[in-house]
Amino acid sequence: MGEAKWIGIDAGSTTCKAVAVDAAGDLIASRIEPAHPVIEDQAARLVDELRAEAGAGGEVPVVATGYGRKLVRGATRNITEITCHARGVFRALKQPGMLVDIGGQDTKVIVIGPGGRAVDFMMNDKCAAGTGRFLEHSAARLSVAIEDLGPRALGAVGEESISSTCTVFAESEIISLVARGAKVDAILLGLHRSLISRVVAMIHSVGLRSPLMLSGGVARNLAARAMLEQATGQKLHLPEHPQLMGAYGAALVGLESGADR
Amino acid sequence: MNPKSYLAYTLGYQLFGKSFLSWQRHSDERKLRAIRPAPDDPLNPPLVGTARMKELMSRHYLEGRYANGVRKVAWVTSGAPIEVLRALDFFLIYPENHAALCGARRHAEGLAVEAENAGYSRDICSYARTDIGAALSGRTPMGKLPRPDLLVCCTNICQTVLYWYRVLAAHFGVPLYVVDTPFLYEKVADHQLDYVLEQIEGLIPVAEKVAGRRVSRGRLQEIMEQGKDCAELWLEIMDRAQHRPSPITAFDGFINMGPIVDLRGEPETFAFYKELLREIDRRIEQGVGAIRDERKRVLWDNLPVWYKIGKLSRHLGAKGVNVIVSTYTYAWGELAPMMDASDPMRSAARVYLHPILNRSTGDKLRSMREMVARFQLDGAILHSDRSCKPYSLGQIDQRDNLANDLGVPAVLLEADHNDPRVYSDEQADARLDAFVETMEAA
Question: Which of A46, A106, B295, B299 is an S-S bond match for A18, by CB 3.0 to 4.6 Å?
Answer without folding.
Answer: A46
